[in-house]
Amino acid sequence: NVIPTPLHDEKLIQNEKNLAERKGVLSVGRLIRRKGFDLLIKSFYEVNKKYPDLMLTIIGDGPEKDHLYNLIKRLSLESNVDIYSNVTSDFLTKQYMDNELFVLGNHMLENGDCEGAPNVFIEAGAYGMPSAGGREGGASDVVEHGETGFLIDPKDTKVLAATILDFIDNKDKLESMGKKAMLKVKNNHDKRLAGKKFREYIYECIE
What we know:
Elements lengths: L24 E4 L8 H14 L5 E4 L5 H10 L6 E4 L4 H10 L2 E4 L14 H8 L4 E4 L14 E4 L4 H13 L1 H18 L2 H16 L1
Parallel strand pairs: 1-2, 1-4, 2-3, 4-5, 5-6
């Protein structure tokens, strides 16, 4: 039995801000290779060809930071991609509320290093955001492919760009999947429900 990762109450916002009021793509996480921020930026270069005013906001810090800044500069995306580090919880909350799509280019490295079940997908769902993420690792434990988001191979940056564009081009799909993601978080990631399931499983083991 697997207990879904619970979120703290303050992150279970269940915000229903109209998606028509939101704009932009958000990604959150430590700036390390397996998170695929470089793949996301390369994909966003293709997205901006169709939507030159669309913004990508990245929140995080880590050893890949300088590399990412250099990549942004090389692709002339300085006006379209922002990286913020050491932000306050209020700032992070505002970004979850103001952006319309969450993307993480998580993938397995050559040495087998990969993501577990990233909590950021759950947090995005709590704010009514659908997600696009990598299919390797544990992302499938928190993102239901075709229901609350899409799981793809982000190493194919054209596919990742096409996935982002599919969301941005189809506001109805964006809203529908966002509502499903919010409902999934409400039903599966409340700490009281997680505690109840944990207790039930323990009793099953000792009976």
